[in-house]
Amino acid sequence: MIEEVKEKVDEILTRHNYEKKELINIIQEVQKEYHYLPEDVLIYTAEKLDISQSKIYGVATFYENFSLEAKGKNIIKICDGTACHVRKSVPILNAINKELGLTDKNKTTDDMLFTVETVSCLGACGLAPVITINDHVHPKMTPESAIELIRTIKKEEM
Fold first, then answer.
1. Is the omega angle on the peptide bond into residue 38 within 30 degrees of 0, that is, cis?
2. If you ran DSSP here, which 8-state letter would residue 59 be given?
3. HSE-up of 135 (CA within 13 Å, CB side)?
4. How high is the mean pLDDT of the chain?
5. CA–CA separation, 122 vs 11, rounded Å?
6. Are 137 and 124 in contact (CB under 8 A)?
7. Chain segment 3-22, per-residue pLDDT in tens
8. Is residue 116 pLDDT above 80, yes or no?
9. pTM of the predicted model, to two decimals?
10. Burial of 57 (0-12, 13-18, 19+ CB in 10 A)
């Protein structure tokens, strides 16, 4: 692991006083920093907290919010709960995937700019269909408005 990564992880661990009981908060911060939980960071964290690697992996894989796979800078979540599904969330998903060149198996763009996920519910049923981009809610979406959002983000990233 490179020194810069160790320093960042040490900062996170220091904020939590190297407390084992803070494990979930620690790995939440790690994921916020890297957009996923890198294997070498989890191993280093386990060593520093003096816990087993299986314990840290058990926590990381138990909670759906944690990811062991690299994600893009912009996380797009498309709600496919009942209200959103009935109001045509699938065509929005299809349009986004087509625009970004993604498939059901490949959810992150090669440039690591976007990751697309479907979720069971975003809790905004009255605003259906809904997507979030980096946890910012976009209500009453259409395939066209979703593509427009993505193109705007791409322009901002250039």
1. no
2. H
3. 3
4. 93
5. 32
6. yes
7. 888 899 999 999 999 999 99
8. yes
9. 0.77
10. middle
φ, ψ of residue 132 in degrees (nearest 5)? -120, 145
Q: What is the DSSP string of the chain?
A: --HHHHHHHHHHHHHTTT-GGGHHHHHHHHHHHHSS--HHHHHHHHHHHT--HHHHHHHHHHSTT--SS---SEEEEEE-SHHHHHTTHHHHHHHHHHHHT--SS--B-TTSSEEEEEES--S-GGG-S-EEETTEEE-S--HHHHHHHHHHHHHHH-
Token pair in block for residue 48: 């520093």
**Token pair of 3 as six digits:** 């020194």
| pLDDT classification of 113: cutoffs 50, 70, 90 | very high
Q: Which two tokens stand for residue 109?
A: 């763009």
Count of residues making up the chain: 158
Q: Which residues pair with 77 in a beta bridge?
A: 117, 132
Phi then psi for residue 44, to 5 deg, are: -60, -45
Amino acid at 46: A
Biggest CA pair distance of the chain: 51
- Contact criterion met (CB below 8 Å) for 99 and 147: yes
